[in-house]
Amino acid sequence: MRPPADDADDLGARLKAYEGQPAARAGTGKDPVNLPMIRHWCEAMGDTDPAYEGPDAVAPPTMLQAWTMGGLSGHTARTGAYDEMLTLLDEAGCTSIVATDCEQEYLRPLRPGDEVAFDTVIESVSGRKTTKLGTGYFVTTRTDVRVGRELVGTHRFRVLKYAPSGGRRKPPPRPRPVVNRDNAGFWEGVAEERLLVQRCADCGTLRHPWLPGCNACGSLDWDTVESSGEGTVYSYVVMHHPPFPAFAPPYAVGLIELAEGVRMVSNVVGVPYDKVRIGLPVRVEFRRYEDAEGALTLPVFRAADVLDALGDRGATGAPGGLGSAGAPGASGASGGEV
Ligand SMILES: [Zn+2]
């Protein structure tokens, strides 16, 4: 999408021609400066300054632009030059836009009853710039706000209109689990290829996901037991849409009921997504992922009976070797996913 250098220079020159052209001419505020709009603004902003209340109220200076806004129906004062310039940029591949900054200058406070008028000019167009977002042009407009003939303030607004960079990006890294104080122990176990289940130290109830307290008795004391890693598919969904960039649909997400009785959500692997069924026996497998963000270990659940029936398709984890305590040894570094 990036225009070649010569064309870009040509584009730059064509854009420069818009400097000084009016973007809006002889616009008028849709409402005079008024107390209800001032009050709504102050409520939205949480501004309780007494200067904006009472019989001698003035408008907050930062409302300057609000008095010139066209609302959903727009303004008739627009000249078309600004839209024309944006179209030129769109056609050159600079199809994205982001507001970068706004500067205002206040010459005198606005008061209820003031009727504002304004003119907007395309003040400047930068040369071609390359930013993190992409390559494009900064466009600055300046709106002069008047009451009668008196200039009361100016409003400068700058946008970057650009061709987004990285059209063909690498797939994003796999999302990381959110590790916090409550569940850190679970993820520490996973890093050691152990599936740890929380157990209430008072009533013995097992729980997952990890929580500070026991749902059964309210006790905050707990220890852990290591799961055998054996379980069955309690329920599942097959993700087709919407696609998440780090995953290739369709894939099965299972709610796995572990032999110990607690349930956890994970991927079901080792079986085509449309062969996943409620009641399917599975066993945990620890997978290591390497990407730009580093190494990550995640527990997934491999369909056990398919594995046993077909023999392992990969080179890892011979069927007979998957004893309940031996699950960690069964996970190859890159077990083939079906
Ligand atoms: Zn308990």
Explain how this protein is built.
The chain has 338 residues and is an alpha+beta fold. The chain has two domains: 5-164, Hotdog Thioesterase (Thiol Ester Dehydrase, Chain A); 184-318, no CATH class. Helix content is 16%, strand content 35%. It is built from six helices and 14 strands. Strands 1, 2, 3, 4, 5 and 6 form a six-stranded antiparallel sheet that branches. Strand 13 (281-291) and strand 14 (294-303) form a beta hairpin. The two termini are 37 Å apart. Zinc ion (ZN) binds at residues 200, 202-203, 205, 214, 216-217, 219. Residues 200, 202-203, 205, 214, 216-217, 219 line the site of zinc ion (ZN).
Condensed summary:
Helices cover 16% and strands 35% of the residues. By secondary structure, it is of the alpha+beta class. Residues 317-338 are annotated as: Disordered.
Describe the secondary-structure layout.
Blueprint: H1 5-16, E1 22-28, H2 35-45, H3 81-91, E2 96-106, E3 116-125, E4 129-130, E5 134-147, E6 150-164, H4 184-191, E7 196-200, E8 206-207, E9 222-226, E10 230-239, E11 251-258, E12 263-269, E13 281-291, E14 294-303, H5 304-310, H6 327-330
Parallel strand pairs: 12-14
Antiparallel strand pairs: 1-3, 2-6, 3-5, 4-5, 5-6, 7-8, 7-9, 10-11, 10-13, 11-12, 13-14
Zinc ion (ZN) binds next to loops.
